[in-house]
Amino acid sequence: MAIITEEPQSPPQLRHRKANPKPTPNPASPPSEPPSTPAPPKSAETTVNPFHFWFYFTLLVSLITLSSVLISSSLSQQDPKTWFLSLPPLLRRHYSNGRTLKVQTALDHPQVEVFSIQHGPVDADSRVLIVHGAGCSSFSFQDVVRELGSRNSVRAVAIDLPGSGFSDKSVVVMEESVGGSDPFSKMWDVYQEIREKGIFWGFDQLVEQGYVDFDENAVKVLKRERVKPIELGSEEMGRVLGQVVDSMGLAPVDLVLHDSALGLSANWISENRGLIRSVVVLDGAPSGMALPLWAVGVPVVREIVLGFRFVFEMVLGKCCVKSVVAAEAEAHRILLKGRDGASAVVGMGKKLNCSFDLSEWSNRDSVKGLPFQVIWSGGWSDEWTSVGRQMADALLQSEFVSHSGGRWMQEQNSEEVAERIYEFVSSLPKPYREVVEETIPNHSQGKYTAKSDHQHGQGHGHDGHSHHGHGHGLGHHEHAGYMDSYGVGHGYGM
């Protein structure tokens, strides 16, 4: 028997509706627009957040600032004794060959110590004083001094100007300021009163007399000590030269002015013609200096130039010397960065007289007739040689000679420069020096003779004590050695 089963079938109409839906016409609706294609996704470059740039920029500036602070801390002033003991042998040997004397750069400033080296007999006919330019020091001229001093008729002296080399580079000054009338200044005055008289001073006065004795309208002058770098201008240079020439007995002196020293010394030369026998200009432009001021004046640049040896050698080779010797460059770098020497160099550079007229100065009555010699670097550049010849033409009674070195002296050309200077000063007439003899009264003659015999018998007569057997002609007041301030003693090694 056959069984027939029927399977349920879905309604065909529903399938048909699903498969072929018919849109219902709507006459009121607007005509349909074609569907817009989706916008492509933006690339990574177009979706960069603008704050990313400022983040990285701030990070870079912070790193540069942090590096500058770290380098500045390494260049900060050390303890004088520690700084001296850390010097390389080249500088320590140079220092052991010198001594110091005290000068005053301004009337209201304390005395400062000036380092000097010298060689040659005290009673020489020619007394040469070498004055370096800004950024340089007597270290560059130690071989020139030795070569000149080896001649029997020349006494050669080179100094470190205040703010340079081993001389003092800063001075403590007392500054006065008038207290302000703003609320913060008054609060500060009250605080100072409490510090000076005690915290219960006002309360005691209030109990005793019913009020506090405090004058609000009083004009108070505040005094404070401040350490300032020595900024050497024309006036300060004149004071230094006058005191050095007088204390070392160099008059009439043969001046050798290097680099910027010419412009700084011009006024003193014209005002003290009787103390000067001749002037030698050694690669000295009327205004300007070989070492660029931006290298030691711009804060971040200064830390980089003085903080890294290779950077300083690049600057030195580009602007000052023809061939860089690593040991000499390192010595210059240490002297510049030690004890804030860069600030003193910047102060000297800012005080240069950029409007100095060499022709007008040389035509002054006080300068006419003064023998001049211009020693110039012949291989530095054609432009620099042209500047030297223009200077020789502007200076009356001058001769022009060249040397093979750069704008700063080096050991390799020191003998050549010393020979040029010696030929010039030895060709001049011998200077006349007036000898003043003091008349001793008859009633004191016997006492003086007995005292002199007693002193010479002990080997400590006036000359023996004053010169310490070295024959350097420096008085007893100059025996305060610069190294004594470091606490390690000092001996004159010439």
Automatic annotation (TrEMBL):
Coiled coil: none
Sequence ranges of Basic and acidic residues compositional bias: 450-466
AB hydrolase-1 domain span: 128-419
Keywords associated with the record: Membrane, Transmembrane, Transmembrane helix
Record field: transmembrane: 53-71
Keyword Transmembrane helix: yes
Name the record gives this protein: Protein AUXIN RESPONSE 4
